[in-house]
Write a structure and sequence with these properties.
By secondary structure, this protein is mostly beta strands. The chain contains two helices and 13 strands, in the order αβββββββββββββα. The longest helix has 18 residues.
């Protein structure tokens, strides 16, 4: 009986270790100006319909102890694409499965991104921005999955539903957007 219990305990602990997501750090700099740490980019949202696609990428950052999200939006289309822009009033809202809402503030200057064309004359509109957590609001993200993200752009507000599992059309990798913060927020906290 003692041997069975020990085997079961060992198996349970090994499963817990495998369930932990490894931290994939993209940058970790400490110098006389301060410190900066960021995770690798992660696809949190993807939608493709009728030749148009939208992809959202997150990278968590810690800049001199201030935690935030570097977000990148990539829109692709053969047709005209409306630009989404960030301004001083832009915000990101994350609604958790437990009902709480986390608000992040945009910390950059006004931006509408850039439009570039690939070799097939397909338009690619890229918009990047950094959103900052307030000191008291990020702890809830480690406890509950995210169900919906709302971004208040300069001229409109768009909701993005997070999936529990997403197999990206771009890189064929499986992502778990709902649990992104639960899995990776620990990677940038000091």
């Amino acid at each position: 009986m003692k041997q069975l219990f020990s085997t079961l305990l060992l198996f349970t602990l090994s499963q817990f270790n495998f369930a932990q997501k490894p931290c994939e750090i993209d940058a970790n700099v400490k110098d006389s100006l301060g410190s900066f740490k960021s995770t690798k980019q992660f696809i949190v949202y993807e939608r493709s319909f009728a030749g148009n696609s939208t992809h959202l990428y997150f990278s968590l950052i810690n800049s001199n102890g201030v935690l935030g999200i570097d977000m990148q939006q990539l829109k692709r289309s053969n047709e005209f694409m409306k630009a989404n822009c960030f301004d001083k009033n832009s915000k990101m809202y994350l609604q958790l499965n437990n009902g709480k809402i986390i608000t992040l503030l945009y910390s950059g200057s006004d931006s509408c991104g850039s439009l570039v064309y690939d070799d097939n004359k397909k338009g690619n509109r890229i918009l990047s921005g950094t959103f900052i957590f307030t000191k008291e609001n990020f702890e809830e993200l480690e406890l509950s999955p995210v169900s919906i993200m709302r971004i208040k752009f300069a001229d409109e507000t768009i909701d993005y539903a997070f999936k529990s599992e997403l197999v990206s059309e771009l890189d064929k990798i499986k992502y778990n957007p709902e649990k992104y913060f639960m899995d990776y927020l620990k990677c940038i906290k000091d």
